[in-house]
Write a structure and sequence with these properties.
This protein is α/β, with parallel strands linked by helices. It contains four helices and eight strands, in the order βαββββαβαβαβ. Strands 5-2-1-6-7-8 form a six-stranded parallel sheet. It has a two-stranded antiparallel ribbon with strand order 3-4. Helix 4 links the parallel strand 7 and strand 8. It binds pyrazine-2-carboxylic acid and zinc ion. Pyrazine-2-carboxylic acid (VGL) binds next to helix 3.
Amino acid sequence: MRTLIVVDLQKDFLLGGALAVAGGDEVIPVINGVMPSFELIVATRDWHPPNHGSFAENHPGRKPGDVVELNGLEQTLWPVHCVQNTAGAEFAASLDASRIAHVFDKGTDPSVDSYSGFFDNVRRHETGLREYLKSRDVTEVYVAGLATDVCVQATALDSAGLGFDTYVIEEACRSVELRRGDGAKAIESMRGAGVHIVGSESLS
Ligand code: VGL
Ligand code: ZN
């Protein structure tokens, strides 16, 4: 079965949002357009408590883009974003969310970030996505959404590592590009891990 994972298509990652990804809004029509090609569609949601350790505001003297240690890992600090039950955490208004069968929340533990839709960054907890897909005999996983160089990359790498035949729909994703070239690097590292980088035309 062919499944689409829509990654973090939330208002804070779109134009005017707290952590706006350049061109992020452009992926919405692409994703709506490919949805009918999938038997199963799930979504991930960045879903942080206000005291989350990835927020620069929670580290006195630090600013977004700084790197600190969190739970033994290097953690890039971000502006406050996708706080649970706030407008910024809502899905993009024009996303056809009625097609989404299940939503998997991540980043809920203040002490660790979670870029992947499958595991937190220290790989201690799962979101339930792996079990959900395995129990439905999903074999092919397509990934789209935001951001290419953060949560799309982490989700696609875990998907491939878990044995799913994994595809990233390149024009249905955009990069944060904290450093120039991060998006291109992410594409190369996914390719190197056996992830197929495809265009949406491959679905019709
Ligand atoms: C993301 C930065 C912080 C993402 C989430 O969804 O790519 N990026 N939290
Ligand atoms: Zn986040």
